[in-house]
Structures are given as structure tokens and as C-alpha cells.
Amino acid sequence: SHKEIFICAHSLGCLLSLEQAVHDPRITKLFLLAVPLTLFLKPKMLRNCARVYFDTIDPENEELMAAKACYGIAQDKNLFHYLGWIPRYLELFAQMGRVRKLLPQLQTPAEAWQSRKDEMVARRSALLLRENPHIRVNELPNSGHYYYEKSGEVVPICDEPVACYGDNPSGFYFVKKAEPNKIYSAPLTNL
Predict the structure, then answer these.
(1) DSSP of 137-183
(2) pLDDT digits (tens, 9 = 90+) for 25-77
(3) Mind listing the pLDDT tens digit for each residue in 98-120?
(4) Which of 3, 57, 86, 147 has the CB geometry, 3.0–4.6 Å to 63, for a possible disulfide?
(5) Minimal CA–CA distance to 67: which of 144, 12, 121, 149?
(6) So what's the pLDDT on residue 55?
(7) Dihedral (Cα; 172, 177, 180, 183), 10-degree rounding
(8) Upper half-sphere CA count for residue 155 (Cβ side, 13 Å)
(9) CA-CA distance, 43 to 32, in Å (whole number)?
(10) How far apart are CA 116 and CA 96, in angstroms?
(11) Three-state secondary structure of 56-116
(12) Strand partners, 172
């Protein structure tokens, strides 16, 4: 029923949004955070996973608290239960491959923001995005995959409030009409 659709996405949501935008002309704009076209797991990612798993997180560490909220890891000392994640990762790799092949076909204007300190998205992803003239790629110098620095980074996106959909079920990103040059995040409980 909508004539135009503007999608905001994070991580896996970016892959789904890019694929959909190639096939649906109603999608007129994309705002993408941490597009995972290629992965490179940094040691920090593995350390963060271990800290979340063993629940050794300092509550004052906002970066680890953000990772914990996004991981959705339930405390389970039986490591075999985590084998169920393997098919999800295989699906992720397949989706990354599909989107890399579709990327040259994308005609929808897109604004992509990649984090310099991303724990899992390879910097090569930004290079692949830059190959498409319809995608403007920007860098967040002090942000990671799940944590976005609160001060010193301005993310201009639009002058209307928007919600971002991605692989973080515990929160969303939005823009205030009064401050259109800043991106904010909030837990879903604040809606």
C-alpha cells in the first residue's frame, strides 16, 4: 500500500534490505549500519563472546553490555546446545554471497555507515559497497558492531524519525526531528 519505502537496517538486516531493494522499486532509500558483505572475526569478538557466555561483564562497560543485549545468549553450560547456531551461520554466509552478487544491480540510493572498530565485519565490505555508485559509504571511527559511540560522531540521515530493523531484537535506532544529524538508540521497552 506504500508508494515509497525507506529502510533502516543493521548487520543482517542490511543484507536482507539490499536484496529486497534490488527487487522492489518501492524501496527508494536505504540507511545501513555495519553491512556484513565479508566477515573477519577479530580477537575482541571472541573475547566479548566468552565474557558474555561466562557472565564476566562489568555493568559499566557499555560496549560489552550492548554486545550482551544483541547476542541473546542464554546461560547454558552445555556447549553442545550452541551447535544449533551452525545452520544460522551457514545461512548468513549464503546470504552474504547472494547480496555480493546482487550488489552491482542495486539502483536504490543508499547511505552506508561502517564501523572502523567492528569486531566481525571485514573492512573489505566497505570496498565492495563503494563499487556501487548509488551507495555512499561513511566510517564511524570509534564504533564497533554493536556499540555506537555517543559523542563526537554525527550520522546525518534524514529529518523524519525512523526505526531501524536488524538483528538486535532488544532495541532500535532513531532520529529526532529536532536533531536530524544525530542517530540515537533505545531499548524497545521505551517505545
Answers:
(1) EEEETT--SS---SSS------SS----EES-TTEEEEEETTEEEEE
(2) 999 999 999 999 999 888 888 888 788 777 888 888 877 777 777 766 666 66
(3) 999 999 999 999 999 999 889 88
(4) 147
(5) 144
(6) 80
(7) -20
(8) 28
(9) 25
(10) 20
(11) CCCCCCHHHHHHHHHHCCCCCCCHHHHHHHHHHHHHHHHHHHHHHHHHHHCCCCEEEEEEC
(12) 186
What single-letter DSSP state applies at residue 39?
A: B
C-beta separation of 36 from 11 below 8 A: yes
User: Which pTM was predicted?
Assistant: 0.73
C-alpha grid cell, residue 118: 567492528
Residue type (1 letter), 78:
N
Continuous segment of H or E residues that includes residue 30: strand 27-33
- Residue 43 Cα distances to 6, 32, 92, 146, angstroms: 35, 25, 20, 15
Q: Would you say residue 187 has pLDDT above 60?
A: no
Rounded CA separation 168/70 (Å):
5
pLDDT digits (tens, 9 = 90+) for 120-167: 899 999 999 999 999 999 988 888 888 776 654 433 333 333 444 344
The answer to whether residues 125 and 36 touch, using CB atoms and an 8 Å cutoff, is yes
